[in-house]
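Milestone M4 deliverable, item 7.
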Amino acid sequence: MRVFITGATGFVGSHVARRYAAEGAHLRLLTRSTSRTDALAGLGAEIVTGDLRQPEGLHSALRDCDALIHVAADYRLWVRDPREMYAANVDGTRELLRLARETGVQRVVYTSSVATMGFKSDGSIVNEDTPVSLANMIGHYKRSKFLGEQEAIKAARSGQHVMILNPTTPIGPGDIKPTPTGRIVVDFLNRRFPAYVDTGLNLVDVDEVARMHVSALDRGTPGERYILGGENLTLKQILDRMSAITGLPSPTIKVPHAVAMAFAFFDETVSGRIRGREPRATVEAVRMGKKVMFASSAKAERDLGFKVLPIYNPLRSAIDWFVEHGYAPAYGGSEQ
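Output delivered:
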């Protein structure tokens, strides 16, 4: 089987590529000219240089492929020009699906995000049927992913074989960039996490997310969304878990959202608008934090054979990987 994978230089995409390689697939991987390719070492894949914002150049790359696994996305919580994000996440998705149809690609897996779900602030556990609309999306990343997902649903309703996966917050080794979630781990390891806000996330093993990108090709129903999640944890619980693994202190000061918002506004103004650098805290991230992102993966368990796994091992693997690769100093021991 010949598989075309976008986003293979990223965190989730690299795990997806390695999973397909282990299954014996012939890989054709899309990379940008500026992408680091460390994660692709040893895969023996065909490398195609291109950009989702210029999709016409990918027509020949899709030819002769049996499946398209579209993992790539512009995943940032702050961006100077939001048009770049919509061009990649919405227009790029729509055009890539069109090219897949034109070149005869039989099956597509589209990696969406749990961010497109209808989360609430009361900690309710949501699923794929929880009502949601574009108006519920906070910030350009969530809006662009919601609109990109709508393009995938529209294509499936028109007869294209498109399965939609919605990972929650993947964790594990190999988060090179790192992602916003990986930054939480790195900041904790570097003791730059003096306080926390009252919010919640669902953490999922990145390897299990990758396995589902293979399973969905055969077991998924076109046009259906599948949440891929693990443990529902408050931010404080996540920090406490990292403390138990490393022996580093977990913060004990809880910051009200209003204080966090004021800091984010200041940091975004000074770092982002004046200095042109990505801020450490953003207004969008704080607004998102008011919604507790707890989710159920029962549908994926039932239909795809997904497994909800304890997060301890993936979290520890992520910590060890960041230390080993110089993102943080050694922490000097851990509890078992």
